[in-house]
Specification:
With 474 residues, this protein is α/β, with parallel strands linked by helices. It is 34% helix and 22% strand. The protein has helices spanning 2-14, 28-41, 47-58, 66-82, 141-145, 170-175, 177-187, 228-239, 292-310, 339-346, 380-389, 409-413, 428-431, 444-462, 468-472; strands at residues 85-98, 102-107, 113-114, 117-119, 131-138, 156-159, 193-197, 223-226, 245-250, 253-267, 272-282, 318-325, 354-359, 367-371, 395-396, 420-423. It has an eight-stranded mixed sheet. Helix 2 (28-41) crosses helix 9 (292-310), helix 9 crosses helix 14 (444-462) and helix 11 packs antiparallel against helix 14 (444-462). Bound molecules: zinc ion (ZN).
Length: 474
């Protein structure tokens, strides 16, 4: 009986502790990596409480709003409370966009039908009485771009392209052009407004907002995203040969002298404090929901992972720096510097000593693999990491990290090597940028798995001497 008990407890102790590796053989670095991973997996991280507070007590926090400022102050207070060093707010000016009242009606002989639609971020208001015109539909942005100049004069353009479900989110990247460039393309052909089928993979009447960008000589035109069933409704009407008209209204507005901010905090490295492993997420979110998947979960994941590292008996060799970016969701005219560029500019002199970066901005779905900087997938570093991650269902990807994220892109462009934790994002675009992006969409167990993977990767990267730049050299 005693023998059986010892055997069972021995197995329990090994359950998350590096399968196939006896505890005594683990180096100190690996012991700590396994410890932070196991604490996270068993739910002993602050991730859920952070995410719950951010989405409940602060809620919607659009870029440049008082709520975004409150979120940054909340985060700074939390980070100081946990014991992070050098906690600071990095403020910058911006033009903030506010949604107003909005309404879209499908007109017809039997009276108007109210459609589920929402204005795209950055779109101008309609005239006070609203706009009313006939729709010209296009199956894609490319089809709209092929329309001759002047062919949309006085009309409303509609792009009906559907988003393809993919695990890695590439379906979104492929379709994004309709939202970012569609309004300008329509306006340059004479359209007075722009509509699009939401960039979403759900079949619900939750329109997906998101920022659009205006360029060129024609002025900005009002732009809306439609719920998927509402886009279907318009398409069916058009198929019967009917000239379909809509009436739309938006009282969106802009605040010229708004302010946003990044929150920066550190665990100073013990041996090479000048060498920085930077991990990021963004605090702002769209106004319709409470930003649980985008990107409250990212904020919770990177903060909780670093907090577990902070609890350990010794510090890592390198500095771990958390940056919670402001204003990720918006596009500003004339390339005004927002959170990502503000950080990169303010720390330009330190870029050569930023050794690695990554961000969490794709929800909290299961992490199935980690992409490392080029040249690293077959190294001892990757082998050690794989041994730590396989027990939690995560492998090392054979594909190098690319499209690491919007907020760390300026760093990557300046030559900082990056890594990426690859989520199962199959459900992400059911909720992304909708009123339905709320706390209940997060699975506590997968949130814990995310923190576990992040904590192990970040600790190992910060406690190694591997030069990720050298490895990445061709
Ligand atoms: Zn995001």
């Amino acid at each position: 009986m005693g023998k059986l008990f010892r055997c069972v407890t021995g197995l329990m102790a090994l359950s998350w502790a590096g399968v196939g590796v006896a505890a005594a053989e683990l180096t100190d670095t690996q012991t700590i990596a396994a410890t932070v991973r196991d604490r996270a997996m068993s739910g002993q991280s602050v991730a859920w409480s952070l995410l719950s507070e951010l989405t409940t007590d602060i809620g919607p926090r659009p870029a440049g709003s008082a709520a975004e400022r409150a979120a940054a102050e909340w985060a700074a207070t939390k980070l100081r409370g946990f014991g992070f060093a050098n906690v600071s707010l990095q403020s910058f000016p911006m033009v903030a966009w506010q949604r107003g009242a909005e309404r879209l009606e499908l007109l017809g002989q039997r009276g108007p039908q109210l459609l589920a639609a929402t204005a795209l971020g950055g779109s101008p208001p309609t005239p006070a009485p609203g706009l009313e015109a006939e729709i010209v539909a296009f199956p894609s942005l490319q089809a709209l771009q092929a329309a001759p100049p002047g062919s949309l004069t006085g009309k409303i353009a509609l792009v009906t392209r559907k988003l393809v479900v993919t695990q890695d989110g590439t379906g979104y990247l492929a379709a994004l052009g309709a939202r970012s460039a569609g309004p300008t393309e329509a306006a340059s052909r004479g359209a007075i407004a722009f509509l699009m089928r939401s960039l979403g993979t759900d079949g619900h009447r939750f329109p997906h907002t998101g920022s659009t960008r205006y360029s060129g000589e024609t002025g900005p035109i009002p732009a809306f995203a439609l719920g998927a069933p509402d886009a279907d409704q318009i398409e069916r009407r058009m198929r019967s040969g009917e000239k379909v008209k809509v009436r739309l209204f938006s009282s969106a507005s802009f605040t010229k002298n708004a302010q946003s901010q990044n929150v920066v905090a550190e665990i100073p490295g013990k041996q090479h404090p000048q060498e920085v492993v930077l991990i990021g997420a963004h605090l702002d979110c769209w106004d319709l929901g409470t930003g649980a998947i985008d990107d409250g979960s990212g904020v919770a994941i990177v903060t909780a992972a670093a907090q577990l590292i902070l609890e350990q008996p010794r510090r890592p060799k390198r500095t771990i720096r958390i940056v919670l970016f402001g204003s990720e969701e918006v596009t500003q005219p004339h390339n005004a510097p927002l959170g990502d560029k503000v950080y990169a500019r303010a720390h330009a002199g330190e870029m050569p000593s930023h050794v690695l970066t990554g961000e969490s901005d794709f929800g909290a779905g299961w992490i199935y693999s980690v992409s490392l900087p080029r040249g690293l997938a077959d190294t001892p570093f990757a082998a050690t990491l794989r041994e730590l991650l396989i027990p939690i269902g995560t492998d090392i990807s054979k594909w190098d990290a690319e499209h690491t994220g919007t907020d760390v892109k300026p760093l990557v462009d300046l030559g900082v090597p990056s890594f990426k934790l690859n989520h199962d994002g199959s459900l992400y675009f059911n909720y992304h940028h909708t009123a339905d992006d709320t706390l209940d969409k997060i699975e506590p167990a997968t949130l814990s798995q995310n923190v576990a993977a992040w904590a192990a990767v970040v600790w190992l990267a910060a406690d190694t001497d591997v030069n990720f730049r050298e490895s990445a050299r061709p």
